């Protein structure tokens, strides 16, 4: 970005239903201890379900992450002329399941941070809880990695490479930003 980063940067997390993954990411990126206050995060869906999955809210509350104001919403809200200008847009759809991901127009930095949809797990309540916890862990680690980037020192091309690497990181043990 090659600019001094002093104000929070706007980040939009997109998926299809905006009921689980993108909601988890929005809340975590807005949580200061995780993202260090660097971001003002939002989430949206191309086909919002209209409600947040209760397990997403439960996982956030158990992690002591504020849930006030979280709601399932359409990405149309962020395409309006008076919407906040986005600096980053991350899609969190699961490409492994061939889930079609929304595309965001314009000039923000973008990356695909695919995460399996925990809301799609229907085998048992225990499996659903595990899926939500796993999704939250992956997203948390990616947001922590993103927050640790020296945004004011990276060129746009180097930053894009780092964002793409973060999207490939699937566990806390992986750290794609340490090798560059």
- List segments where confidence is low: pLDDT < 50 over at least 5 consecutive residues: 171-180
Class inferred from helices and paired strands: alpha/beta
- Overall pLDDT: 87
Element string (H = helix, E = strand): EHHEHHEEHH
Q: How many separate helices?
A: 6
How does the overall form come out from the CA principal axes?
A: globular
Biggest sheet, strands in spatial order? Answer: 2-1-3-4
Annotated CATH architecture = 3-Layer(aba) Sandwich
Helix content: 25-40%
Task: Specify the CATH homologous superfamily.
Answer: Response regulator
Number of strands: 4
| Percent of residues in β-strands | 5-15%
Radius of gyration: 15 Å
Could you tell me how far the N terminus lies from the C terminus, measured between alpha carbons in angstroms? Answer: 16 Å
Number of spatially distinct domains: 1
CATH structural class: Alpha Beta
Under CATH, the topology can be stated as Rossmann fold
Largest sheet at a glance? 4 strands, parallel
């Amino acid at each position: 970005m090659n600019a001094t980063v002093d104000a929070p940067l706007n980040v939009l997390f997109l998926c299809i239903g905006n009921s689980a993954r993108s909601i988890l990411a929005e809340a975590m990126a807005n949580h200061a201890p995780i993202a260090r206050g660097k971001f003002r995060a939002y989430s949206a869906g191309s086909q919002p379900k209209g409600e947040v999955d209760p397990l997403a809210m439960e996982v956030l509350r158990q992690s002591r992450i504020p849930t006030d104001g979280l709601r399932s919403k359409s990405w149309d809200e962020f395409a309006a002329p008076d919407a906040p200008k986005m600096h980053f847009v991350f899609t969190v759809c699961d490409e492994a399941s061939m889930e079609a991901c929304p595309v965001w127009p314009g000039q923000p930095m973008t990356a695909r941070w695919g995460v399996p949809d925990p809301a799609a797990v229907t085998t048992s309540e225990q499996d659903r809880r595990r899926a939500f916890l796993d999704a939250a862990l992956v997203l948390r680690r990616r947001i922590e990695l993103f927050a640790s980037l020296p945004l004011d020192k990276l060129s746009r091309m180097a930053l894009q490479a780092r964002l793409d690497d973060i999207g490939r990181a699937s566990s806390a043990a992986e750290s794609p930003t340490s090798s560059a």
